[in-house]
Amino acid sequence: MTAAQPTPITADSVVEFLATRGIVTGGRPTVSAMTGGVSCTVLLVEAGDLRLVVKQALDQLLVEGDWFATPERAVTEAAALSMLRSLTPDYVPELVDASPADHALVMTAAPADWRTWKARLLADEFDGEHERAAASVLGTVLANWHTATAGDRSIAARFDDYEAFEQLRIAPFHRTVLARHPVWADSIRRCIDDLIEHHECFVHGDFSPKNILVNPRHPTELWVLDFEVGHYGAAVFDLAFLHCHLLLKAIHRPEHAAAMAQIASAFQGAYGAGVSAGAGSRAVAPFRRLGWQTACLMLARVDGTSPAGYLTAGQQDRVRNLAGRILGTPDRPIDEVWALLTEELDE
Fold it and tell me: What is 115-346's CATH topology?
């Protein structure tokens, strides 16, 4: 028997939903739809000084074609918010409420003037020094999450559901790329196997600039968002995911490529220092096939189910060329990947 589907939460019904949950009970809240994602309905509700985000997971993503994912991932996200808020309270929004039956959660909203790190990295007023500062904080935060949860059986048990990760990452990214680029099948299959077999620590699963909000005046003040594909898995995925996005932006804005490499180095250095100092450092292997994993993800953003919309056709070809140079040789350290990018852009 199929479970009843929850009522969609819309701009017209969200205030009533919050009132039913006892969260907003008076005044005249304003409601705004938040854009940029494809997996959830996301609404900003403001009532006086109160700013809340209401997020409801969709079972069919808002993309061309059929792409489905379990909406119960909202429960995973709520659990991740609570856990990571206890580890790094300054870098994660506060969970206000969770409604598993509605596949929904409510959390605090960032100040109105905070911007996504993606917008900052692609902006004409790009400031490499500021972004390096943000990257260092992100490296330290991610290392904290990985080492603090490494080897923790209770956390492993809580986040042992890989269904959303398979549906939203491995299938549309790695498996799709594998089908479209069989010439690199051996490298890609080994990356898939690593992600499935290695259960080391809590993994964010979407550690991307679009999911990071930054204070424009103080770039070390930031929040990490969107934990719906969080799971207990291979630490390397989070590092590869961020390096992938930074490399794509360097290809898109080659005039910023050198600065983007410095940003990546700042992130990697802070992460490495944090892992070395962390109690769980021996339990994670975050650099295992990092070059190959990054190349797989780069290919996925041009030939996977969800391509990066800002890349031109010529830039997509550069991504394929660079990824092929990585996957067609023994795995490389990430600094060599960035060196190959420089060669690719110079050709």
Answer: Aminoglycoside 3'-phosphotransferase; Chain: A, domain 2 (3.90.1200)
